[in-house]
Each structure stands twice: as structure tokens, then as C-alpha cells.
Amino acid sequence: MQDKAEATRRNDVLDADHISRCADAKAPAFIDLSDRVWGMPELRFEEFRSVEEHIAAMEAEGFRVTRGIAGMKTAFVAQAGEGDVTIGFLGEFDALAELSQEAGITEQRAAEPGANGHGCHHNLLGAASLLAAVALRDALAESGVKARVRYYGCPAEEGGSGKTYMARAGAFDDLDAAFCWHPCVYNAVMSSSTLANIQAYFRFSGRAAHAAMSPQVGRSALDAVELMNVGINYMREHMPSDARVHYAITQTGGISPNVVQASAEGLYLVRAPSLGDVRSLFERLRKIAEGAALMTETKVEMVFDRATSNILPNRTLEEVMHEQFTRLGAPDFDEADFDFADRLRAAALTDDDVRASAEAFGGPADYPKTLHDGILPLPEKPGLLFGSTDVGDVSWVVPTAQCLTATAAIGTPFHAWQTVTQGKLPAAHKAMVTAAKVMAATAARAIANPALLSRAKEELHGRRGGLAYRTPLPKDSEPPIRADR
């Protein structure tokens, strides 16, 4: 009877309304933090200023900070509280290259030509997860309920797999549940798997020669890269339909056409719904590279860059998160928010952009407003989102749930200037605070219901097929951090 009474008390004092009040009390400081991080966009593993802003905010709130997680200078953990349950919130703060953009305008105009920009709204992402951790800590303290609350400062989600290295180092092993969110154009609980991936450089070396006078003594590394791409294009017919191979030629051997290029390099990204499929496709890619080297009498070196696992959805936590989201409601956008979204839609978004948003996230393509102020229903069963995230590796270690909130107008293509320009607007701030409330309220419900956490862990065990997490990283790989950092 005492256990039942304690559970009832926890449910009463840790309800969504209490969490919401705690979040509102601290929201202005974290909105300001988000705007400051927007103004200092930093690339993967170089988020030094952004991390210091995050750490200062958490130390001011009394959290204990541990730096340098998994050997990465921009990875850290902030913790508060003690207890039998440990809850983690995942945050990100990295930007994208050459996406500088002035805020709050409807045309492309770089704030600083060639500079970086927050084209995935990670300035909002990290700040909201911080706010969720603080709001939950405050609600627990006011309620007299004990639990550990952690914020994970996770670097390099954009092309660096920071969480994958943290997972390999065991950073999430003692969590009972993890919660995160992502900026989006719809409000929803994400109940989807994602594509696992492996990314690596293939560096070809040959022999330079005068391309006209003595081409016979040259061996073209650039030819090898081109032949590798030809081989991959033939492979595409024999890949699973939901797998992907992307590439960029990162080094061509120079700009002189009268030289046989002695060096060339391509960066290749392989994606598939499962780690097994990714590993199989990547091995085929390696064989194609070896074949290209044989045909051109060059040498090839593979240099690993990153890898991530697919997300394992956790319906147990997702259903609770959807309940809390429904209770708290969507962001309360006002006339000014809709006015800017209307003008951006007219100036810089197309019908194809809107359809692409709907197809990606399962939203209505004919939604009558330019900002989504509803909440999408939870799908009957998990789907597949054709993107990748290192949250996947966390989800293999600990039950994980993620929500999406509408920080941008429907149709906004992420990783584009249209996203950056909306990153400091009041609408984005409202969506960010909503995300913090949903995450914290869901975490509070998990703390209040030990049986819920047990079911979530049982579900994770089943989705893993009874197997332990196996990192997709090669055994000897290290984060691709510049030597001068």
C-alpha cells in the first residue's frame, strides 16, 4: 500500500502543469542562450564557444559538469540530484558550413559571406534540452522526489557522430531513459527508425606526368575516382531500394588539365535501414574502390570518418510522450508569427517544398496554415525516416524518445538558408520552449512510474533481439578532430 501511495503522490506533484510552470520560469534565459549560440555558429568538434555558453548556464543552475567525454573537448555532461533513477536529455549545438544568413528576412543574404550558419536549428536544440533538464530538476526539488537529471552536451551530430563515440565510451550505460527533440516543420512525437550509415574517404595515389608528352608513364588518381563512381552507379541497381550512397569529390589533384593527376580523393556516405545492410554495402564499396585502383594501376587508402546506428523506436515512451504533448498543446503562435511564415512561403518556398515536408514527416500537405499549430497523431506503428542521426546509437543503449516541434514554416528545407533565417524568431522560441516542456513532462512521468521504465527497457531488449549494443565504429577509430584543436 505504501508503494502505491508513493506512486500516486509522485504522479500528483510531477504533472505536466507543474513542469510547464517550472519551464516558463526559466525560459527567458535559455531563449537568450539559443540566440547567442545562433550568433556563433561552429562546425563539428569545434563548438568551443557554444559549449562554454552551455556549461556556464548549467553551472549557474548548480549542475555539476564533467568535461571531455569520450576524449572530445566539446563533449560534456552536467548532472544534478541523486536517486535511484537517472534521466538524460540530449543536446546539440553544431552548425553547418557556408550557411551564414541574416535573421528574420525572406531573401538569401549572408550575414558574413562564406561563414557558417545554424541550418538545422541546433542553437535551439541544445538550449531546449538544457531547459528541460533545469525544469525537471526544479520540479523534483519542489516535490521532494529524488532522481538524477543529466544534460549531455553532444558535439558533431552534423557529420561527426559525437554520440556514437560517447556511446562506445559507455557515457549512457547507467541511464534509465533518454529524451531528445529536433526542430521541425510539424509538431509530433517521432516514432520512426532512421538510416544507419558509414562514411569514409577513399584516397587514390598515382604517378604524375605530362599529359601530352608522356601520358604513358602517368597513372591518374582522378581516373580512379571517376571509375569508382561509375562502379557505384552500376551497384545502385542492385541495392535495397531504401539504401543510399552519396559522395563528394574532395580533392581532384589540381586544376591543370595538362597534368596526369597523381592524387585524388572522394568522401562516400553509405546509408541503409540496418547496420548489417550498411556494413554489407560498405564492403561492396571497398571492393569497387580496389577495382578502380587495379584498372588505373593506382593505390587506394580508405580513411574512416564516421558511422551511426539506426534509431530503435520505443513505443512505450513514445505513447507517454504523445500524451504529454497533447496535454501541453502545440506552440501558441500569434498573428506576427504567421505573417512572417506567410511572407517566407510566398518569397522563398515552393509547393514541392511543402510536399517534401509532408512526405518526410507524415504531415498534411494541405494544412491551411503556414505554421503547424496542431499535433500529428502518433502513427499506428513505427515508420522509417530517410535521414540519419547519432541519436540512433543512444537508442540502442537506453530507451529513448524524441519529439519534434515546429520551429519553421511548413515547407522549409532544413540545411538551407530558409532555416537559418527563422532561427531567432519568436515562433522558433515558442517551439523550443514547447519541446522542453514535452521532454521534461515525459521524463517526470517515467520517474513517477517505475513500471513504465521497466516496460521501456523490456521493449528495447526485444528490439535489439536480445543482443547487446555493438558500436558501428572501427575498433581503432578516433573522432576526426583537427590536430590543432
Offer a quick outline of the entry.
Helix content is 41%, strand content 18%. The protein has 485 residues and is of the alpha/beta class. The strands form 4 sheets. A 7-stranded mixed sheet has the order 1-2-4-3-5-15-6, sandwiched between helices.
Describe the structure.
41% of the residues lie in helices and 18% in strands. The protein is of the alpha/beta class and 485 residues long. The chain has a seven-stranded mixed sheet with strand order 1-2-4-3-5-15-6, with helices on both faces. Strands 10-12-8-13 form a four-stranded antiparallel sheet.
How many separate helices? Answer: 14
Tally of extended strands?
15
Shape: globular
Query: Which regions have little confidence, pLDDT < 50, spanning 5+ residues?
Result: none
Which strand order does the major sheet show? Answer: 1-2-4-3-5-15-6
Largest sheet, in brief, is:
7 strands, mixed
- What oligomeric state do these chains adopt? single chain
Mean pLDDT score: 95
The fraction of residues assigned to DSSP E strands is 15-25%
